[in-house]
Amino acid sequence: MSAVTEDGVQRASAAEAGDRGRDGEERDEDIEEDEEDGFEFGDAEEAMQCVEMAGTDAGALRAQANDYEALAARKRKALAEEQPQREGSKRPRQDELSEVEAATMFDQLMEGFGLRRKRRSKDGKKRGRKKGTKNKGSPEVIKKLGDATLLFAEEKFNEAIPILHEIVRTAPNLPDSYYLLGSIYSETGELDKAINFLMLAAYVSPKDASLWKKLIPLAKKKEDASLARHCILKAMRADPEDVDLKYLCGDMYRNLRDYQKAAEIYEQIVRIYPANIAVRKVAAQMYRECGQIDKAINLLEDYVNTQTTNIDWSVLDLLISLYLRNNAVNEALKKIEKARLQLRPQQKLPIQLQAKEVICHAYLGDVKHAEIFLRDVHLEPSKDNTDVIKELASNLETMGLHEYAVKFYLMIGNVANRNDGSLRVDHKEMGSSYVKVAECYMVLGDKRNAISYFYKAIQSMKDNIHIRLTLSSLLIDEGKTDEAVTLLSPPQNPELQSANAPDQQKPWWCDGKIKMQLAKTYYDKGNLEDFVDTIFHPILETLNVEYANRKVKSMKKLPNTVLHERVKVLGEPRPDSVFQGLRPVASPGELQKANRAKKLIEKRAASNEELKADDSRRTKQVPPIPGLLANMEHHQLVLNLCRTLALLQRYWDALQIINRTLKLGNDVLTHDSKEELRSLGAQIAYRAPDPSHGFKYVRYVVQQHPYSLSAWNSYYKVISRIEDRFPQHFKYLLRTREEKPDCIPPIIISGHRFTAISQHQSAARDYLEAYKLDPENPLINLCVGTALISLTLGFRLQNKNQCIVQAFAFLYRYLRLCGDSQEALYNVARAYHHIGLNTLAAVYYEKALAVEEEDHPIPKLPYEAGLCVQDDLRPGYCDVRREAAFNLHLIYKKSGATDLARRVLKTYCTV
Questions:
Q1: Residue 168: how many CB atoms within 10 A of its CB?
Q2: Where is the composition biased (Acidic residues) (predicted)?
Q3: What pLDDT is stored for residue 56 in this prediction?
Q4: Which letter, b or e, does each residue of 645-656 get, where b requires 16 or more Cβ atoms within 10 Å of its Cβ?
Q5: CA distance linking residue 74 with residue 136, whole number of Å
């Protein structure tokens, strides 16, 4: 069995009433919607059922209602499905009739619990109760009611309750019986039952405002805001002229921040009591809060214009503030002059009006009144005077009069001090004043004074990050870098500092902005290790968190925790109350969200979707440095960090930063920044112990410059340092050869790969393919010749002599292209020596010894072009005479010429 709702119709839950408030355009239904005047019980049985509900245990009542609902819903469905089949069928069995009767009874109960709703007529008929329907009791009922009242007065509650139940059965529409029952339960401390019966009495007699007023304190005592609001609105509708109710209603809307409705209610009170200055001021403030400045001005002007003596200065001050907000400076000055004319001979304008006069003249470009105020006005220490000076200084600062703003901000400290020197305001308020003074000095270009006042401010506001950042920037500009470092560094006793910090707030030295500023200072000073230690972990953690946040799927469906939090706006169910469906105390927008959330929860519960899911699913975390890559100013800091890590040989740390930065900042980083990071990654790949982590960067360099020999040299240097087979390298070579068949370096590198695994036939095939593309290349001719020689030394080749001749043909071509250089002579001699032709090998070794080779600079890799790389090479690193002499001495020694071998070693291989 459901409970009676506020409009006399039974509903299954309180959430449906919230749907009526979904549209913000609707007004309160209790005041402006078309409602019923009340309800009447159809007979005594219906009234007694309602009385039983009001005094029944809530759990049993809910169980009974759920049973009725389940039975009725099941029977309705059966009736809807079987209706076509039952046409012309026999009469249902007896057991079926009981279910039909149960469903019919529940439908009748759901139609109004026997309550006949009497809605207002919308066709212009005469309003009000029909004649002859006023609730009047018989003499017997009046006598019983008198007896129950006497028993109530004698506190014989147990004897009065049965009599009142009998009165309800005899005269169900008499409100006095319900009122007396509610009073009895209120005296016995049963608050819920008292509210139920008083609500019944109020609904039976809705125009009796006293009944609704009695419910208001009970609802507040129960801390039921929805019920209190409902009773206030009902009482106002019953007695529109009750000012106390309007006060309660206005305060209620004010607490809900519905300033528009609050202003309208307060204005109604003003119309009733025009001399009530306090309410007039509150109404004007409410209009100001909702942006209706003109209405607020009109409301105050009506009062100020009628007052010639005993002016309320607070009202005039508020009016002038509204004029200034509306840019009506001349009107404000007129009001001030008019008020000055009404002063007595020795009387002066209040300090707040004098300050407003200074502001008005400053807006008009006249600052002499500010000087007069500073010179002549002496204020007593008080919070009000401090607020006046603060408002005046803030307005002057907004107008760009920073010199005068400084003077007034400094005046705050003097006003706040007592005669004994103690402060009347807290340290944070004084600190904020010093911050304002320092900011004004910064605008004026006086950095010295700005620094001193920032130091004063930070003594009161040690955890303020903005002050520390601004002050450190000023110190750096003034060349006081060490002071800036001390200011941004963690304190010596961080445990003591963190104990004084607010709860759930990390210490100021852990803030990402502080760490970034400190790191920049270290970098500018050249303290690279301190720079890395300060900023590396915050940046790496930020990049990891941002990367993890991108993996978190953006859930279109809100988690259950969020939905349940929104549903709380509708209020808790009222299981122990007869009356359900009271509109929650919330704004229309909150009600709309709450009702949507409730419907979604019910839908998920019905489909068993995500109802038992763990709502502790992954959510996006807040990184230590929010917006690291989104801010262009931070990109250079990341680049500096990567360069420094590479310089300090922390290659793996640098690669972590580079990898995450390129993945996350592909859309925000500039082209030059991305190129620099990739070049730096290629350099790290060549120098790091494990070059496989930087392979993609050298591959990117080759992809961007596919015909650059220096790019391919850097690529091959990285690959040659990877000992194991590297599938990515092989796949990339094959793909490059397919896409660019005229590109020679990948063909040569493929030949080198086959040579390394002793597949000389495949190597020779690749080298010859490269020879077809560039026959005048000395390196290709050398590679072809060496590959053919290595092939002849195998066991499978039959025409070895022909292959050797071909090999030396390529080698002599190589010698000619190199111009008989020392290196070429040595390579030819080494080829003869390798196949056992020692006589010819000795000839070419001797020719190599006769040639002197100067040192040539080693070509730099692409990423080394702008770097000063120090090569630890001894003089003569391009001269191969020592190698040629050693090989020649082996030939002499093998032929028996020991003395000759010894002489060659002594000449070329000793220092």
A1: 22
A2: 26-46
A3: 52
A4: bbeeebbebbbb
A5: 43
